[in-house]
Amino acid sequence: MAQTEEVKDKFEERLKNLSAEERQRILQSFKSKISSEYAAYLNTCAHCGLCADSCHYYLTSKEAKSIPAYKLALVTSVFKKAFDGVGQKLPNLLGGKDLSIPMIEEWVDSLFGRCTLCGRCTINCTMGINIPYLIRAARGALAEAGLVPPGLQSTVDTAVTKGNNMGIAKEDWLETVEWLEEELQQEVGDPEAKLPIDKKGARLLYTINPREAMFFPLSISAAGKVFYAAKADWTFSSENFDVTNYGLYNGDDEASGIMSGRLVQAMEELQCKELILAECGHGFNSNRWEAPEWLARKYGFPVSSILELLTRYIQGGQILLDPSKNEETVTLHDPCNLVRLGGIIEDQRFILRHAVKNFVEMYPNREKNFCCGGGGGQLAMTRFAQRRLEAGQIKADQIKKTGAKVVATPCHNCIDQLMELNKHYKLGIEIKTITEIVADALVLDTKG
User: Is the pLDDT of residue 190 over 60?
Assistant: First the structure.
């Protein structure tokens, strides 16, 4: 605890003692991330206020600082003062402001502490402004100056230096897979059942969230059971198995590229045909959509969510499910990065309708669903923990209204947040991944 406070104190000290040169570097870094298209966005906000009712932070706090337009204005005002010709000469006319230390403090508090980059504000914006992109660009400028809240930056640093965001050593990962394989063999009654590692030429390379290996091994077992039932040709990588990429959250494109690049490296070294991403919202968005930009190259292989693969297995008859094995009423939380920002919307619903006896939607849902509050790196930033739990009240209320006993969500960040909301708001629910629910519903071929 003392070490955590020491790190926090060093961050605050650095923030308060930024030189004029450092602040100028932040400005130049931010400018480099803003194309003409996004510069136009910075001058487009109509101040209509519709974004306020889209934001879980504002709806639960009613604080003006939590309105997306307010957060956007923090960025816009600095850009206008620094780079707009009229704004430089007549800052009061355009609302231009200096990137002072108090302004940077507000950037940290609002852009990191009052935003999960969930994108709900953008779909409700009358002007179509991509607010999360602009906030991430400002976060990235702060990252280059070493001004990312310590918990979030530490997660990125661990992933870059250790190969995964939990810092799991290779030997520990291999040992985990070994004992999970033994458990799988016992469960399916087949001593030949495998959780393969580094199988060269396998059709599928499956990645995980390292939290599964550390805290949720049943998620790995569930995937292994599904692959066994489907008679899949698949493998893990012994080195590059981490689907997560917190560079999406701290705005550091270079670090983001390093992390996503490792999965490309694993695909090429193992000569696999398709990259399968585990149930991780930001991991999907990062590796499916953003990574080619970070890496400045196209993939030479398809990238799919495990949900898309499960849908194919069900539709193609590779796996058979018995929904009566999941009798409790199940509802679905839509992860922002997977659904609103990632486009995987109907697969999880198709799967649940085949895997559970009673599936009910929470409202609103799909791309209009509210963020649970766990995205944007919030779970890694302890300084904003209380605010995160308060912002999660909307999600807690959504869940209560369904009457469901089980909440399914295809994202481990969401699972961690929902577990905290479950305790904080006394929801009395069980939280599972989609793959776990499918594994519970499997009808195995015992004839061999």
Answer: yes
At residue 446, the pLDDT reads 59
According to CATH, the topology of domain 2-147 is Fumarate Reductase Iron-sulfur Protein; Chain B, domain 2 (1.10.1060)
Confidence of residue 1 (pLDDT cuts 50, 70, 90): very low
- The structure tokens listed for 158 are 């661990």
* DSSP 3-state percent helix, strand, coil across the chain (nearest 5): 60, 5, 35
> Which CATH class, in words, describes the domain spanning 319-441?
alpha beta
Number of helices and strands (H, E) in the chain?
A: 24, 8
CA pair distance 216, 186, nearest whole angstrom? 19
Letter for the amino acid at 9?
Answer: D
Handedness of CA 35, 51, 84, 78 (dihedral sign): negative
Pair of tokens at residue 384: 């904003």
Instruction: Give start-end residues of each CATH 1.10.1060 domain in the chain.
Output: 2-147
For 379-410, what is each residue's pLDDT tens digit? 999 999 999 999 999 999 999 999 999 999 99
Is pLDDT at 370 greater than 50 in this prediction? yes
Residue partners of 38: CB distance under 8 A and separation at least 6: 130, 133, 134, 137
Cβ atoms 340, 120 nearer than 8 A: yes
